[in-house]
Write a structure and sequence with these properties.
mainly alpha; 48 residues
């Protein structure tokens, strides 16, 4: 979610760890200030 522009950035079709990692690696995260995520273990494993 882009908080400033109030727009969704993306909704992931899959919540497997590998898919989440690939998605995050494909994005330009240089301007990311905050990550908000679901409490699913796969999200935590992909980010941490």
């Amino acid at each position: 979610m882009d908080i400033e522009n109030k727009e969704f950035i993306d909704i992931l079709p899959d919540i497997e760890v590998d898919m989440i990692k690939k998605y995050l690696q494909s994005r330009d995260i240089s301007r990311v200030k905050m990550v908000v995520m679901d409490l699913l273990k796969s999200f935590k494993q992909a980010v941490c």
